[in-house]
Amino acid sequence: MSSACARGEKNAVATVASADGRGALAGAVTAEESARFSAMNPKQVFGEVMGELAERDGGLSVVVSDYGRRLNLDHMREVLPEGFVQCGIAEQNQVEVAAALANEGLTTFAPSYATFITGRVYDQVRVNLGMMRSPVALVGVSAGCESGMLGASHMALEDVSLMRGVPNMEVFCPADNAELASVLRLLAAAPRPAYVRTNTLDGANLHPDGTTAAVGRAQRVFSPEGAPEVSLVATGTICSRAVEAARLLAADGVAAEVLEMLTVKPLDVAAVDALAAGGRRLVATVEEHSVVGGLGTAVAERLLEHGGAPALLRLGMPDAYQNADSQAALLERAGLTAAGIAARVRERLRG
Q: One Pfam family name from the record (predicted)?
């Protein structure tokens, strides 16, 4: 038996034997963990969870393309050195190797810059994860504008659009580090083709009581007093700014709720259907991604099937390559601050 197959059998045992009360392989994150993760950045959280999984899962593999030394993987490599695979600066090869290991039964994660692990490797993802359904979790690091100082080549503003276009792929955009940890644990417990989008923004903890990632389920993370007239539907870390925008709107007498979409694919169609039938004056989507092809497009597609749906405002990055600048400056120019989001909503309501 090959070492990969042997590790795969060990992985199966670890998954079945995971009922240890901590829920580590079932996706649950406790309130205590949520507070601890909120003090980290997503790269640190990724490494911490991989180290935790390595202690339980002898079939864990983390396949990297040069970027691994920045992902807090020292503990994982100490516990399970054979589980760390370095491919060098070769993301296409990274996906091929990750797919091969996953097909042998290993629990496989493949992290890299979000723009490279989606755009540079699109054909490999389409064939291996889409057509062949190789159960690899791609992890996009520094998504959106986080690497904006490195220029347009390093900004991942089309990644959600690319990944939601691949059949059999799930697309996760965690709103904070607790949710990121929950998603990673979930995908370790039940591997399948998936893309997990991560970035650092405001460091908000939207899940102080803990969380368990739920595929295709929206969460209401802010509720106004009284019935909402506006629904802000947000995905990813920009969700914290949508919550602040809702508070600003409340101060102006506009009742706005915030729904967080952890998964852009599968979309929570029941939640969108409820918005279409709920008498809202406006639905506004908020994302640190191009306004083309991401959450706004997914929500628009669903609303259009209903006819007579509320007005839709899509807030995101413009359909253009951006000049190098800081994440803060790029988002401010795009109107993706709390004040900018609230202003666009007020303008649309007046119009």
A: Transketolase_C
